[in-house]
Every structure is written in structure tokens, then in C-alpha cells.
Amino acid sequence: MGQGAETLLMRKTLGAVQTLELPKPYALARFQEHQHARPARALLNAAYAHGGGTVMTFDRWWPDLTRDEEYDPDLLFVVEETNTSHMVGFAQCWTSGFVKDIAVDGAHRRKGVAASLMSQIFATFKARGLRSVSLKVQADNRSGALQLYHAVGMEIA
């Protein structure tokens, strides 16, 4: 997170969860390390290049991620463009119900990808028996993240 920026903790209580379908031409793909790990970090770095998150090398990120006690590969969410298999969205979540990182390629934003991805995250954690999902976001995030999180029912904790 950027220096001096206020960080907000946001939370959504998981009552009835409705999964939003991804718009065409997008689909969820099961995370495959050999296929998705490097493009995921590249997507996060591109999304965070102007603030909102941490830019780091793959060689630093991947070992730290996979050694974390809350790591679960089933909580790495991938959205691909169906006709190219190009990754356009990615989210990394912790087993505690925390969304650590989420990014959508700039060319594919404001098309419903992030909202659908968040709804999938909510449904996954609901199915695991969690009561809420939380995340942190910079108050001055210019990507539209704060508006997205409010739109999907998250509130400042």
C-alpha cells in the first residue's frame, strides 16, 4: 500500500449469496501454477503500478504466497477471455476470508468482471462456512475499487 494513504478495512457479511455470471467472453478457470502463476503476478503488478497495492517480482511473491499458512490454491481465482485463454482477472484470497489481492486488466474493466469475481469469492467462502469476507483498500484508490466494493455490498468496518 502506498505511503501516507489511508487504508480502509471493508467487510461483507455473508447471508444469502447470489453468484453473478461472468459476462461473455469471460470464464472462470481453475488455477494452474505452470499456466497462471507468472501472468497473475504480472497482472497484479500492472494494476498496482500507479498505487493501490504492492509491485514485486514473481520470484519474491510466489514463494512468500505458497509458504503462507493461509495459502490454499483453491482460493486463487482466474478469469480468462474464452476465445484466447488470456488472463484478464485474478484474485488471491486467504483461508480466513480475506481478499489479499484482486486485479482486472485495464482493457477489461467496467464490464462486470470484478463484480462477478467478487461474487464467486463470496460464494466460495460461504460454502466453506465463513460468516464474512474482508479486504483492505486505500481510500484514495483511483481504479474504482472502492466503488466496486460498495456495489457488491461491502461496508467500511
General description of the model:
The chain is an alpha+beta fold. It has one domain (7-156): 3-Layer(aba) Sandwich (Aminopeptidase). The protein has four helices and seven strands. It has helices at residues 33-48, 58-67, 113-127, 145-151; strands spanning 7-13, 26-30, 76-81, 86-94, 98-104, 132-138, 155-156. The radius of gyration is 15 Å and the shape is globular.
Oligomerization status of the protein chains: single chain
Major pleated sheet: 7 strands, mixed
- Give me the count of strands: 7
Helix content: 25-40%
Entry keywords:
157 residues, alpha+beta, Aminopeptidase, seven-stranded mixed beta sheet, 4 helices, 7 strands, 31% helix
Task: Describe, in short, the structure shown.
The protein is an alpha+beta fold and 157 residues long. 31% of the residues lie in helices and 27% in strands.
Note the topology.
Elements lengths: L6 E7 L12 E5 L2 H16 L9 H10 L8 E6 L4 E9 L3 E7 L8 H15 L4 E7 L6 H7 L3 E2 L1
